[in-house]
Design brief:
disordered N terminus; Four Helix Bundle (Hemerythrin (Met), subunit A); two-stranded antiparallel sheet; 6 domains
Amino acid sequence: QLCLRHAHGVPVHHHGGLDGRAVLVSMPTSETESVNTENVAGGDIEGENCGARLAHRISKSKFSRYWRRWNRFCRRKCRAAVKSNVFYWLVIFLVFLNTLTIASEHYNQPNWLTEVQDTANKALLALFTAEMLLKMYSLGLQAYFVSLFNRFDCFVVCGGILETILVETKIMSPLGISVLRCVRLLRIFKITRYWNSLSNLVASLLNSVRSIASLLLLLFLFIIIFSLLGMQLFGGKFNFDEMQTRRSTFDNFPQSLLTVFQILTGEDWNSVMYDGIMAYGGPSFPGMLVCIYFIILFICGNYILLNVFLAIAVDNLADAESLTSAQKEEEEEKERKKLARTASPEKKQELVEKPAVGESKEEKIELKSITADGESPPATKINMDDLQPNENEDKSPYPNPETTGEEDEEEPEMPVGPRPRPLSELHLKEKAVPMPEASAFFIFSSNNRFRLQCHRIVNDTIFTNLILFFILLSSISLAAEDPVQHTSFRNHILGNADYVFTSIFTLEIILKMTAYGAFLHKGSFCRNYFNILDLLVVSVSLISFGIQSSAINVVKILRVLRVLRPLRAINRAKGLKHVVQCVFVAIRTIGNIVIVTTLLQFMFACIGVQLFKGKLYTCSDSSKQTEAECKGNYITYKDGEVDHPIIQPRSWENSKFDFDNVLAAMMALFTVSTFEGWPELLYRSIDSHTEDKGPIYNYRVEISIFFIIYIIIIAFFMMNIFVGFVIVTFQEQGEQEYKNCELDKNQRQCVEYALKARPLRRYIPKNQHQYKVWYVVNSTYFEYLMFVLILLNTICLAMQHYGQSCLFKIAMNILNMLFTGLFTVEMILKLIAFKPKVGL
């Protein structure tokens, strides 16, 4: 470096430091300081050297070295603190306190609660600011802003500080940016740090933001196009009824946007279409053409664009599930390796013989056969001979004309080729569930004759079908009970029948417990969940017989659970088994989606309370704006009839769904997410003024952005997450039965295709006259001719209308008889060509 500096003409000054070594004056004294070579090369060298010499002396002083050492020590300690579990849970605790503070806000709250909330918000803001500064100091600015959560925290904290300054200096009202306090609730998602499945779900939702943003841009352009078109078609034309003010109109661009968005949600869109038809003169020729606009808008927007949200949800859920499965496999592999290192040789052998790592505990439960004793049935072998075509079938592709033709295909024009069927359609014999080796009730051994006879009875098909028949009768008797006249003769008869049914079901359980044992050993009766359900239902029925008090008679309602007993037959129906497994898996693992949706719903409810609490009240007399004015009576006229005035009392009423507290706001928003009546709440919120004041028409149109954002996030996306989760679950469960198969899906389909393929036979008559008719009805021209006749017949049927003339009616009857004759001729020709059994 000295040589290079002399070569470039830059003077190098040496001086003796504390350690006696030469120090280069032009070297930076910190990480953020840079070297200005231009000023060194020219200018006042003496002044530059003096400043550098002074900075160097200060940096080499004992105080400076002590300060740097102490700074590094503090940053290490602070970094360890902010990454500790104690600090993590402390922040989560503060977030919960912030949640309680925001959730406690409601309409007409006392002044002391308002003061406590303001103080708590300022204190929490100070604590969150301290957390942000501590993280910036310990991690450094560059490392701090790498995390998206840290960027979000910084934005919310800075917004809160700005809001506090503006409110305290009386520059703006307290509402302003107070919604940022509610957005701060999203920090609670940091709890996913110790919840892998929820963390993967949140990560997949965040990764889908880019796809959703592209879809939202397309949706926004779609809405703008149809809004502009609606303004051109219906602008100022929805005022045909002067007695009624319509809110869903196309009179201006913002209102047109809201109307198109309402049609996309499907809520009351038909009323808007009827208004459009009436705007053009009613259901006549020019007016009916208007419905084309609404049909295209609804089909393209609701059926196509909005369903893309479902596709995005399915894609991201599949990624989240695969990531969760990979993490489970990795954890199980680590656990097995850990046990293998510490286990004995015999235990190691057991671990080696265990199922594959990918077979999680949940999958074992799902794949467990639902049998009477809880044991998995023995493997069913497929006889390859059973998969071959029947030997008695005619191998010739052209059958003998003298044959009955029962096996001929209906459509002769289908190409000759194999038609595969899946293996799931095979009806294979299932063996009886083996009886456990352990004794039953410590009395009946596995060789006991009575126990063997009980085992034979409960596995008999007649016994199973008889029990299912009694289950059906019991369900019908429960449905036939009279809930009003409890002492009626019908209820008396049904009550006696209930004694009989309960006795039969009790006998069934006793026989199964005798055959398989009660619950102590593996494969016993109570080791199966469906058997426990049966036992619970019968026990409730037996207990209800001994209870005569009407207050406890409600327990009898639980007897309806008896209708769930047919689910024991799912082992005989593979499709039903998969459906039941998917339902249980979806219920067990859908909790993560419920948590995310509930938290978002809660956040929007808190924002709604900030925006609309106490502002949705209105007086029945629209001329009054306050509760104090809304007193006494007022005169109204029904249907605008001035000659018939009606005197009604004034009343100060709140909206059916309001935002006066968090629980009421969550209920109101839930109705919005279902699209039922949400335009009424939307326009009620748009007209809201201030607290304890009546509505003003279109006072805050911009507030509709709140409802639009909520519907897009919750109704369009999160609700589709539930549907997508069911789809992903069905896909995964459909592959569970092949998880130990070495063939992939395409290879399995090829094997099934090869096993079930058989040639299709084509009927060709050998009689010369019959062959000519067969040739005609199989020709392409004949098929086109019949298609044209069917089309003309459909048009004739569609031309009938109310108020048609007699001449038109006679013409239609003649045409219908003509078409009926032509179709009859077609039927006769096909009967001649194919023979009755072949044609049918």
